[in-house]
Write a structure and sequence with these properties.
- The complex is a heterodimer.
- Chain A is an all-alpha fold.
- Chain A has two domains: about 5-105, Fumarate Reductase Iron-sulfur Protein, Chain B, domain 2 (Orthogonal Bundle), CATH 1.10.1060.10; about 105-150 and about 175-195, no CATH class.
- Chain A is about 40% helix and about 0% strand.
- The longest helix of chain A is centred in the middle third of the chain and has 14 residues, at about 85-100.
- The radius of gyration of chain A is 23 Å and the shape is globular.
- The relative contact order of chain A is 0.11.
- Classes of the chains: A mainly alpha, B alpha/beta.
- Chains A and B meet through α3, α6, α7, α8 and α9 of A and α1, α2, α3, α4 and α6 of B.
- Chain B: This is Cysteine-rich domain-containing protein.
Chain lengths: ~220, ~290
């Protein structure tokens, strides 16, 4: 173990949402006893992870062989910590830093990409809607993915402050979204044809369950759109 | 008295992978006259494990948009998945805690003409059942009590923890699900791994399946007839998970895993098809044979 503390790394962690609480850690170990990942893996120990953040051991924490991905995300450490370190949130901040550097497990990236590009984490297919129909459920509504694309894009220089109030002029969504590259890129053609044709209503087939009431939402008009 | 209408937030897994849960919720809550207003503008919550791990600011932005949709529609949100509950509640908490962060997220929402204020309440349906409906009215809706059925409850993590944010029940000694299961006539039973995580959030080929194995060894030893739970992610760990445990360790448990509103729906007299109980990997017949 090196003798120097890497403060640059710690400052970067401070600047990542949830990362700054690592400074409160007193190394008491209250986070360890209830940790399922620590129970099942000798390699994973939330106190040790926090110690490494205090020392700024970047490679061990966010390098390709980091143990942070074994965290079960159960929040027991957050529940137990007397110092409000929120260890799981520090671990998530470390994951964000790893992702920023491109060190992200493939399945995490693919899953997150699916949500960015389709607004939904599950595959929406006709067979899903057939199963729903059999249960007396309506098809899954179309996901407003173009709105996600707009809010996922990195902030631009001098972006206007929020307000959303009357009089604010917004670019048409399509044009703004269409020009964005990166995680939020819209790929409307990838959407499985869920919205194309509402499937036939369940019509008293033997196996079909009775239709369950789905009240129409109130339509809300946004004056600024 | 809650004046606002309640909008169900279905998330992704329930409507797409386990629509039987949605059917059971609509039917059992319909029987209890809980009016639900569907909103078509929600997206993925987004998921509190992978999406949040990649970029927490984007995670907050998507969560804040969903909450802002609820604000525009003037509804409170009812979740049915512990993951959605966790995301939407934690996002509300963080945005209330940090004004600068809230403004940063609102700058993103301004691009689509929206703004997040923090006025919408988010509750898991079990809280709505406990607090708005009440155990007595649930019991009165039962026409086919699940007498003598022993239910091992799996709480999962995100309904309860962190209690600083969730404040649903005591994180170490919860009883909300015990009371709701009792209302169906069934008997909740304790077991040593009752509060263990399902393991789904852990990126490992070994650990989650070992956790599933230990949980089933525990509930099997306690003599449970089935497992009762309230989260689709936990469900996948345990329904499909039992098949994987059988394959890997040659240990067959065959303990049916049942979403709470399916249990309630059985007790309210709904049919197997209406509750989608025929869609489970681990067959539910042993339970149905005893009550139907």
């Amino acid at each position: 173990m090196g003798s120097k503390i890497a403060f640059t790394f710690r400052e970067q962690l401070d600047g990542t949402i949830g990362g700054d609480h690592h400074n409160y850690c007193l190394q008491c170990g209250a986070c360890v006893a209830g940790c399922p990942a620590a129970r099942y893996s000798e390699d994973f120990n939330p106190r040790t992870i926090l110690l490494k953040t205090l020392l700024g051991q970047e490679e061990e924490l966010i390098g390709a062989d980091s143990v942070i991905w074994l965290c079960t995300n159960c929040y027991t450490c957050y529940e137990r910590c007397p110092q409000d370190v929120r260890p799981i949130e520090v671990i998530i901040a470390l994951k964000n830093m790893a992702a920023e550097r491109g060190v992200l497990p493939d399945e995490v990236n693919k899953f997150a990409e699916m949500i960015s590009s389709r607004g939904h984490s599950a595959v929406l297919s006709e067979s899903v809607n057939r199963r729903r129909e059999k249960l007396g459920l309506d098809p899954i509504p179309r996901v407003p993915v173009e709105e996600l694309t707009a809010i996922l894009a990195d902030p631009e220089e001098g972006e206007v402050p929020s307000g959303g109030g009357a009089g604010e002029v917004l670019e048409p969504l399509g044009s703004k979204a269409g020009s964005q590259e990166g995680p939020g890129k819209v790929r409307p053609e990838k959407r499985a044809g869920v919205e194309k044709k509402p499937s036939k209503k369940a019509s008293g087939g033997k196996a079909s369950a009775k239709k369950v009431g789905r009240k129409k939402p109130r339509t809300t008009k946004r004056s600024n759109r | 008295m809650n004046e606002r209408k309640i909008a169900p937030f279905w998330g992704c897994m329930i409507p797409a992978k386990y629509p039987q849960m949605e059917a059971s919720i609509r039917r059992s809550l319909g029987r209890l006259e809980v009016p639900l207003v569907d909103i078509d503008r929600f997206t993925c919550c987004p998921d509190p494990i992978y999406f949040k791990a990649r970029n927490k600011e984007q995670w907050l932005a998507v969560a804040a948009r969903n909450l802002a949709v609820a604000e525009e529609e003037d509804v409170d949100v009812m979740t049915a998945c512990s993951g959605c509950t966790s995301t939407l509640r934690e996002a509300s908490f963080l945005l209330a805690e940090d004004e600068e962060l809230k403004e940063r997220i609102n700058r993103r929402l301004a691009r689509i003409g929206m703004r997040y204020e923090g006025t919408t309440r988010v509750r898991h349906l079990v809280e709505v059942l406990r607090d708005d409906v009440g155990v007595d009215r649930i019991r009165e809706s039962v026409t086919r009590p699940l007498n003598d059925i022993k239910v091992a409850i799996h709480y999962g993590c995100h309904l309860l923890k962190p209690s600083q944010i969730m404040h649903v029940d005591d994180a170490d000694y919860p009883e909300i699900l015990e009371r709701l299961v009792e209302a169906t006539g069934a008997t909740p039973i304790n077991h040593r791994e009752r509060l263990l995580c399902c393991g789904k959030g852990c990126l490992s080929d070994e650990i989650p399946i070992q956790m599933t194995r230990d949980i089933f060894a525990s509930i099997s030893q306690a003599g449970a007839d089935c497992m009762g739970l309230i989260c689709p992610t936990c469900f996948s760990s345990f329904d499909l998970g039992q098949i994987m445990v059988a394959r890997k360790f040659d240990e067959k448990y065959e303990i049916p895993v049942i979403y709470y509103c399916q249990l309630l729906g059985i007790a309210q007299g709904f049919s197997i098809e209406e509750l989608g109980l025929d869609l489970h990997r681990v067959k539910v017949d042993s339970i149905l044979a005893r009550v139907c």
